[in-house]
Amino acid sequence: MKLTKDNISLLEKTLIKKHGVIYLDLRLEIMDHLATELEQLEGDFEETFPNFIESKKEFIKKTYISLNRQSSRTGAKLLLKNIFSIKFILCFIVMTLCISKLVDINGKVWFLENFDFLPIIIPAPISLIMLYKMFSYKRKSFAISLLGITNSVFMFYLFLFIHLVRKADNFYWIPIFSFFISLSIIYYYMYFVYIKYKQKSILY
């Protein structure tokens, strides 16, 4: 049978509402497979579709879980790739030098009183955007995975490393703080450049 736009639309709505396939990129992969199988069947779509989609319930569930896990691993790998990149290392060196200079001039107490929450404040706009996109039917597992993992790192800073920064001497706290500041800056690169590239690679 030949599928129409309405048929494809119904397939997508069914995946969202009945099977919880909320991520667009994963949904498109599953839809492509199911649509290919449907086109190989004979008969009328309206009569065939209910039984077909019911028979694919386990396939949809297992495939969605598998793709979700794969996306999470990809997000973690991309975060590590960015952390060990030349741009991150250069940013880290510049931040370390700048912070060291400011601390030498004004002291650690002055610096931390004014800037110790910067690694949380700087990425906040992107986090708010992602919170909004969490409720969009076009949300993508890749983006949410990458940014979710990165936000988890910032939470480690907020609940653990910020206390180390406040207590440690300059030799230890400045590199730690520089790392998180550098990550908060690279965070924008990952969102606006890397994710934009990934989005273009997905066929809508």
Describe the structure.
With 204 residues, the protein is mainly alpha-helical. The protein has two domains: 5-66; 77-200. Helices cover 82% and strands 0% of the residues. The protein has helices at residues 5-17, 24-39, 45-55, 57-83, 86-106, 108-115, 118-121, 124-133, 141-167, 170-200. Helix 4 packs across helix 9 (141-167), helix 5 (86-106) runs antiparallel to helix 10 (170-200) and helix 9 packs antiparallel against helix 10.
Largest sheet, in brief, is: none
Amino-to-carboxy terminus distance: 22 Å
The gyration radius over C-alpha positions equals 23 Å
How many beta-strand runs? 0
Q: What is the number of independent domains?
A: 2
The backbone outline, from C-alpha atoms, is rod-shaped
Strand content: under 5%
> Secondary-structure element order, as H and E?
HHHHHHHHHH
Rounded average pLDDT = 87
**From the helix content, strand content and strand pairing, which structural class follows?**
mainly alpha
Approximate helicity band: over 70%
Low-confidence stretches: none
| Number of helical stretches of at least 4 residues | 10
List the helices and strands and how they pair.
Blueprint: H1 5-17, H2 24-39, H3 45-55, H4 57-83, H5 86-106, H6 108-115, H7 118-121, H8 124-133, H9 141-167, H10 170-200
Helix pairs in contact: 1-2, 4-9, 5-6, 5-10, 9-10
Question: Keywords, please?
Answer:
rod-shaped, 2 domains, mainly alpha, 82% helix, 204 residues, 0% strand
